[in-house]
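lol forgot to send this yesterday, sorry. struct tokens for the thing we talked abt
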């Protein structure tokens, strides 16, 4: 990535307007997010507000092009459908402009639902906003995928073994996810996941048929922006797909139970922090079920699939490097023994088969 000063200069040229106050807002596994303001109206993109903070989101990693295009299409169509997402102003796939694909979009008011500045602040914001967090996901699952072309967004989950001769759109999300896990188990190799994968694969016929909905597949407190307790938007749509909502809800349950509160340290290294994580994890299912009734047998099955999908992702990051699953090299820091232990136990409970992921010798790619 270019230096901040060069990004500002190139962005000013791209927009034909002077850029001020460009600074890093956040950095994740696969993106870097900047905030900037325009000093005057852009001649090329007149819809970008002047004098107000705007987001510049870079897509990085081996799947950057597909992820950027997918997120732009998704939030553009969700915005038209009236769902709470940032307004997209532009997407640029040409890496020659700023060195990576990027999107310019609205800067949402507020911050992540799970604020980490202090325990009292985190507890207050998360407690008061958790109901709205669940309600926003349930509302997403009630949207008609045919509305505003949401059914036709580029799918995030595909695997060679799952591809139909004509189109992956004809293959259920469940089958595509299972094929991805299977590929990772073989490529890793990840032998400690093989028995559990066989178990869930043998039961797939029972749960294959389902009503298709738009699914986020990475819905957790860091991807929901709130101001006070009001949700101002849901972000990070790079994993969006169309399929069984039970798998999306199960993915959220897995993240809440195993990963979402690994940081900061006080959240995982003391009894109060772990208690808070456990309480909200337990609250999620009854709240969601009250808003969008679940088939519990299907949900429990999807929990095992979601846990194996996430565990196989961590396994590939450790054995083949983060770029093997589309992330930046720095993402390896997030593959911690604590998360792996929790996730392995979780996957074992839900699948009924012992699950083990050996991270003794992680291979970190060179930067």
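and heres what i got for the seq, position by position
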């Amino acid at each position: 990535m270019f230096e901040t000063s060069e990004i500002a200069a190139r962005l000013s040229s791209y927009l034909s307007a002077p850029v001020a106050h460009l600074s890093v807002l956040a950095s994740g596994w696969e993106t870097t997010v900047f905030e900037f303001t325009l000093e005057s109206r852009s001649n090329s993109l007149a819809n970008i507000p002047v004098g107000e903070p705007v987001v510049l989101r870079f897509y990085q990693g081996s799947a950057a092009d597909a992820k950027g295009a997918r997120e732009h299409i998704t939030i553009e169509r969700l915005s038209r459908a009236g769902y709470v997402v940032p307004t997209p102003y532009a997407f640029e796939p040409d890496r020659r402009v700023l060195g990576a694909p990027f999107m310019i979009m609205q800067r949402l008011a507020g911050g992540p639902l799970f604020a980490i500045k202090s325990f009292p602040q985190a507890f207050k914001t998360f407690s008061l906003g958790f109901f709205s967090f669940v309600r926003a996901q349930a509302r997403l699952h009630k949207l008609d995928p045919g509305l505003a072309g949401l059914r036709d967004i580029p799918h995030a989950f595909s695997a060679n073994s799952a591809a139909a001769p004509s189109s992956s759109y004809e293959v259920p999300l469940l089958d595509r996810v299972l094929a991805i896990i299977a590929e990772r188990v073989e490529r890793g190799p990840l032998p400690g996941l093989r028995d559990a994968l066989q178990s869930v694969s043998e039961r797939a016929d029972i749960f294959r048929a389902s009503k298709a909905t738009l699914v986020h597949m990475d819905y957790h407190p860091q991807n929901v922006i709130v101001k006070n307790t009001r949700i101002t938007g849901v972000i990070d749509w790079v994993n969006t797909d169309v399929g069984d909502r039970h798998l999306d809800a199960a993915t959220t349950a897995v993240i809440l139970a195993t990963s979402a509160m690994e940081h900061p340290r006080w959240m995982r290294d003391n009894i109060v922090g772990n208690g808070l994580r456990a309480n909200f994890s337990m609250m999620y299912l009854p709240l969601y079920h009250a808003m969008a009734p679940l088939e519990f047998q299907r949900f429990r099955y999807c929990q095992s699939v979601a846990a194996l999908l996430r565990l196989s992702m961590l396994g590939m990051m450790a054995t083949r490097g983060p770029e093997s699953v589309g992330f930046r090299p720095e993402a390896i820091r997030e593959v911690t023994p604590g998360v792996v232990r929790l996730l392995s136990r979780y996957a074992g409970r839900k699948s009924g088969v012992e699950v083990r992921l050996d991270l003794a010798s992680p291979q970190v790619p060179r930067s």
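The longest strand covers residues 19-27. anyway ping me if u want another try
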